[in-house]
Every structure is written in C-alpha cells, then in structure tokens.
Design a protein that fits this description.
- The protein is mainly alpha-helical.
- It folds into two domains: 53 residues; 77 residues, no CATH class.
- It has four helices and four strands; from the N terminus they run ααααββββ.
- The strands form two sheets. A two-stranded antiparallel ribbon has the order 1-2. Strands 3-4 form a two-stranded antiparallel ribbon.
- Helix 1 packs antiparallel against helix 2.
- The longest helix has 36 residues.
C-alpha cells in the first residue's frame, strides 16, 4: 500500500532520460530499465491495494466487533495502512458504520449526518479530521483511530 504518486513522475523522468541517452550511448538501456522497474512496481502496488481493501472488508464482515488493532494483528497489515484502507472503504460506501469512542471497535450502524455546532477548543481526529464530540472519547467514531 505504500506507494508514492511522485514515483510515476520519477519513472517518467528515467524513461525520458534513458531515451535521450540512448542516442549517445548504450547506457540509456540501463536508465530505461530503472524507469520500467519503478513504473511496474507502482502498478503492482495499486493492484495490491484493491486486494488489501478486500481483506480488511472481509475481516470486518467476519468479526463485526473488531478494532483496528485486531485487524492489523490478524492480517499483518500495518495499523496506519488499515486506517487508510478503512477511510477508502468508507469514502466509497463499501464500509458503513461507526467506531466506538471508548473501545475502538466498529459498530455496524448506518452513518447519520448530524448538525454539530462549532465551538472553540473542539477536538478533531488527527487522522481524518472528524470533530470529536465526546470528551471521554479515546477513539474516533468515523475512522477508528486512537486519539
């Protein structure tokens, strides 16, 4: 899941540089090879991301009381990557639910939009930016991140 969009630009730069070097010497093949390797690794990372989404979604379907830490331990996916996958799944509408602010476990309920008044000194989740309405909250209700 760890891929950087700028690496596509870097791969393109290597390919362009290799093509221009190819006019002057055979070392252009080496530079083109590096560009192709970078490009192919990013394509594999994007393909792997959809597999990771399916794994995390299946984990929540089989164990509805799971927390992010539980999913991370069972799947071997890092905690930060699980949080990013959860945000992707929630944004696409594949995962609908809130996380308990006390335990960090997911609760399978539909997401309701509530009007919350803005006030100074309000806490926000450092990972997804959702306002934290309860003072006793230890986990974010939207993404499940530990506060």
């Amino acid at each position: 899941m760890k891929y950087i969009r700028n690496q596509f630009i870097i791969a393109g730069s290597f390919l362009w540089w290799g093509i221009t070097l190819l006019q002057w010497s055979w070392s252009g093949f080496l530079v083109i090879g590096i560009g192709v390797i970078i490009l192919s690794s990013q394509i594999v990372a994007i393909a792997n991301r959809s597999k990771l989404r399916r794994v995390v979604l299946q984990e929540f379907q089989t164990n509805p009381d799971a927390s992010i830490e539980d999913v991370s331990m069972r799947t071997g996916i890092s905690r930060k990557d699980v949080q990013a996958i959860i945000l992707d799944l929630k944004a696409s509408g594949q995962l609908i639910g809130k996380f308990s602010t006390k335990t960090g476990q997911i609760k399978h309920v539909s997401i309701q939009k509530e009007l919350v008044s803005s006030e100074e000194g309000r806490k926000y989740c450092h990972y997804c930016g959702t306002p934290i309405s309860k003072e006793s909250a230890q986990y974010c209700a939207y993404c499940g991140a530990k506060i």
